[in-house]
Amino acid sequence: MIDGKRPNVLILTGPPGAGKTTVAGLLAQRFERTVHVESDRFFDFIASGYIEPWKTESHEQNQLVMRIIADTAASYAAAGYFTIVDGILIPGWFFEVLRDVLHARDTAVSYAVLRPSLSICMERSSRRAPDRLSDPVIIKQLWSGFANLGQLEKHVIDNGEQDPDSTAQVLAERLQLGLLAT
User: Hey, what CATH class is 8-177 in?
Assistant: First the structure.
């Protein structure tokens, strides 16, 4: 169930081509007051000294960006907006610092991973303009980050055979039942 006593944030993640941004937009329409935070944009604010976030040496940069995103999301949530943070927020790289900062700000956190098959992600990403998120090597690397989630596996939604509206519906239902709380 979405926590009515505390500000609420949904971390919506998955590999490139999973449909995160499309589904987040559709889910946002189901609530009266919603903010959609596209986490990738926060990396674009780095004017110089930028390191591709999937590279090992980007750890310090990634941690900083996640803290900034968490502060932004918590502020919107505290103002009464259901807040959706979407991006490639892989456990071990991004998820934990984002979740921990949100919890420290007394924000209820839900977590959902959209995870269609690698072949579906590759096919969807191939339709994008050529950039770093259409490179098959990087897509495979990022998809692998969501392959074995251990205790977080219960947060996975295989949306490979679902249209975006159906996926948004599944998310809304799981949020209402409290199945995505973390």
Answer: alpha beta
